[in-house]
Amino acid sequence: MNGILNYILWLPIIGMIGVLLTPKAKENAIRMITLVTTGVTLALTVVLFLKFDNAATGMQFMVQVPWIEQFHINYTLGVDGITLAMTFLNALLFFICTLSSWTVHKSVKGYFALLLMLQSTVFGVFFSLDFFLFYVYWEVMLLPMFFLIGIWGGENREYAAIKFFLYTFFGSIFMLVGIIALYYASGKGVDSFSILAHQGGKYTQLTVDVFGTTFSFERLFFWFMFLGFAIKVPIFPFHTWLPHAHVQAPTAVSVILAGVLLKMGTYGFLRIAFPIFPMAAVENSTIIAVLGLISVIYGAFCAMAQDDVKKLVAYSSVSHMGFVMLGLSAMTIQGMSGAVLQMFNHGTSTAMMFLLIGILYERSHHRWIVKPDGSKGFGGLYTQLPKYSVVFIIGMFASLGLPGLSGFISEALIFLGMYQRFTTITVIAVVGLLIGAAYLLWMFKRMFFGEVNPDCKEYEDMNKREIFYMLPLCACVIYFGIFPGPLLDVMKVSVGQLVDLLAKFS
């Protein structure tokens, strides 16, 4: 098991090389190479999950190899309970996205090669325990995403790709300055780039001069890190890139963007911002909670105003990630456990919604609930597509937070964790749940009930391939809605350590 993280990290790169070496004309072979690669990677993450020791503290399955020894930069990998949930989610969604991309016919070789490269870079962000390595993966991840949106996206794909790249790159610059500051603050020693070595609140007494003014080192650079991660989440008001990127991206890329890439931002708070700058995190927890609340309410209202069903689900992601930020701001066991669980549950339920919208788009070639000319885009789908409708109901109610499905337990834990510390914010956040129920049910009513739209009479129901790749997600939202224990157990120790650290500065 010592090298399992290496296998998971590098297998997609080996698959990418295999895709690039395959002749362009052999499109089915390219698809099969990608499917086998993502399938084996998923199997390895299941093995990792089963072998993980829930009771152990610290990182497990660590790999450390000297890289740039002159500057004490190491190739260091490891996982804890928080990382493990994101690792499994990443592997599952890429396997499903490969199956959902079977109908892609434009530059097949380039598409699947970039998809595998993207999977490897996301694993790299989650596994990295060296700041230099973390930043390399964080930045390299932008390249495959930029091209996947910019080449295979919709009609305004270039604008969406550039906006996504510039926003994320802007935040990354502040994060880089923060990493450099930590390197010098730690004395440029052996552990200067080690993420774990910086944790524990070591810089609470340190000051730094900027333009002749003395600042608290911790308070200043917490906000540098905050900006880098907040843009990726994204938190209001840094969210404006998200609807464009989602709407223009191809279906599989929208799934990856919502399911995994947004979680990199909240993961950054859990792994870097909070444990390295705990005093500043505690001091600013109210600001984080307020921004999370605004994201919840604002995202829900924006979703309600949409006639484009894909943009509606994109804004719902802003609202759901706001709940994650609320859970993190609580800094309690229940709140943070709920936040990490919500990261996973949002990844599965929103992936279902985007995949279902993609299936419908393949048949209709539009995404309008109500078209720009005022005519009805969809109507009476329930009688035309019964299988599709049942799966849509499961995904919609999971996203809504219906008891018995995965969204409920994570949101309930977030509210339990928040109530004592932010009672008023908790009460207001409940409004976000009500608006969420309103826009999702209103969307369902307009699309699936009423008179059958004449165009919809020609649509085919879900085929075997589509049913096959939707079943694992249906199973996840139902199983973890009833039995969230397996996920809560793996993250319990890691979340507990972080909460104990933050409690020292409360």
Helix-strand blueprint:
Elements: H1 4-21, H2 27-51, E1 60-68, E2 73-79, H3 81-100, H4 108-127, H5 131-140, H6 142-152, H7 157-185, H8 195-198, E3 207-210, E4 213-216, H9 217-232, H10 241-248, H11 251-276, H12 278-283, H13 285-304, H14 309-330, H15 333-364, H16 381-384, H17 386-400, H18 406-419, H19 423-448, H20 464-482, H21 485-503
Antiparallel strand pairs: 1-2, 3-4
Helix pairs in contact: 1-2, 1-4, 2-3, 2-4, 3-4, 3-11, 3-15, 3-20, 3-21, 4-5, 4-6, 4-11, 5-7, 6-7, 7-9, 7-10, 9-11, 10-11, 10-14, 11-14, 11-15, 13-14, 13-19, 14-15, 14-18, 14-19, 15-17, 15-18, 15-20, 15-21, 17-19, 17-20, 18-20
Overview of this structure, please?
- The chain is mainly α and 506 residues long.
- It has a domain at 284-506.
- 72% of the residues lie in helices and 5% in strands.
- The chain contains 21 helices and four strands.
- The strands form two sheets. It has a two-stranded antiparallel ribbon. Strands 3-4 form a two-stranded antiparallel sheet.
- A hairpin with a 4-residue loop joins β1 (60-68) and β2.
- α4 packs parallel to α11 (251-276).
- The two termini are 39 Å apart.
